[in-house]
From TrEMBL:
Keywords: Hydrolase. It comes from Denitrobaculum tricleocarpae. CDD domains: PaaI_thioesterase (cd03443). Residues 55-137 form the Acyl-CoA thioesterase-like N-terminal HotDog domain. GO terms for molecular function: fatty acyl-CoA hydrolase activity. The keyword Hydrolase applies. This is Hotdog fold thioesterase. The keyword Hydrolase applies. Gene3D superfamilies: Hotdog Thioesterase. It comes from the Bacteria. Pfam families: 4HBT_3. InterPro entries: ACOT13, HotDog_dom_sf, PAAI_dom, TesB_ACOT8-like_N.
Length: 144
């Protein structure tokens, strides 16, 4: 990503994509783009009681949905534009519970080719160092 690409597709463009391109139930997750980097980005998932199951643990389905969504947002920023993709593979590992409260998701793009892209998303409780969950996502570009 060049410096001009980085400036042309940042946090405001990610926020606009969330509103315009994703299903209404994804918007209910309240994902907040925080930072765009040359190899990914950072996001916050604010505390949301609707995502917690008994015991105050954030459900795995929400974590997987966030991983898939922030992956598409980071690829858009990396490419300098939104490209239609479809998820072809996602592996999610839960290392320790993500407890009720704000969560940080950090995306690292591992490869971004003409037809496929792969990235990693690490989840931590906001302000903590230990990774609680991680997802590796592979996408196929649909525009060739």
């Amino acid at each position: 990503m060049t410096e001009s690409d980085e400036q042309s597709f940042g946090v405001p463009e990610m926020q606009a994509l969330l509103t315009e391109m994703f299903a209404p139930w994804i918007q209910l997750l309240q994902i907040k783009p925080i930072e765009v980097t040359t190899q990914g980005g950072r996001f916050e998932l604010p505390e949301n009681a609707d995502l917690s199951r008994e015991g105050g643990i954030i459900c795995g389905q929400a974590v997987a949905a966030v991983a898939d969504t922030v992956g598409v947002l980071c690829l858009s920023a990396h490419n300098g534009r939104f490209r239609q993709v479809t998820t072809v593979d996602m592996t999610t590992h839960f290392l320790r519970p993500l407890m009720k409260g704000a969560v940080e998701a950090e995306v690292t793009i591992l490869s971004n080719g003409r037809r496929m892209a792969t990235l990693r998303v690490d989840f931590r409780q906001t302000g903590k160092d230990k990774i609680c969950a991680g997802a590796t996502c592979a996408y196929a570009y649909l525009d060739g």
